[in-house]
Amino acid sequence: MSKRPSPSRADPTSESEALEHALRALRFRERSTSEVDRYLAARGIDEADRHAALETLGRTSLVDDRRFADTRASSLAGRGGGDDLIRHELARAGVADELIDGAIASLPAEIRRAEGIVERRGASSKTARYLAAKGFSEDVVHAVIADSRAEPLG
Fold it and tell me: What is the model's pTM?
């Protein structure tokens, strides 16, 4: 029983296999470079082939961490996420801190997003807990709930 030699960087089939797996990972949603790398590693693709595939994907703009960060941040904010939740999710995806900061800076201010949620849900302790659970800062939660309760009714 002979062992199959491990694929080397010079082996075009292993590079194309890595690229094929990467494209499969990108078929349904955008992913960060780090997510694609982890995906390939989990499928047994060696480091050199992963690197080659990621380089090709980056060069062709199929993987772009800035675009991923902006898109993901916008999606999370649109679903009611606060800055802390967005920062956490992007960091978990392996996005660099400067790209995370830029993506969050491009969003409407956190307090404006929280005010929209309070307008829909009402100013209550339940809404305050909801905002906190969605990653809004404590200062923002207090500010929007206090401001809403201070307004005269009717």
Answer: 0.82
- CATH C-level class of 65-105: mainly alpha
Average pLDDT over residues 54-82: 96
DSSP letter (8 states) at residue 132:
H
For the domain made up of 12-59, give the CATH fold.
Arc Repressor Mutant, subunit A (1.10.10)
Is residue 109 a contact partner of residue 141, using CB atoms and an 8 Å limit? Answer: no
Extract the tokens encoding 42: 């989990």
Helices 125-133 and 138-150 cross at an angle (nearest 10°) of 150
- Side-chain half-sphere of 18: how many Cα atoms within 13 Å? 27
Question: Residue 133: what are its φ and ψ, rounded to 5°?
Answer: -70, -25
CA quadruple 98, 25, 78, 84: dihedral positive or negative?
A: negative
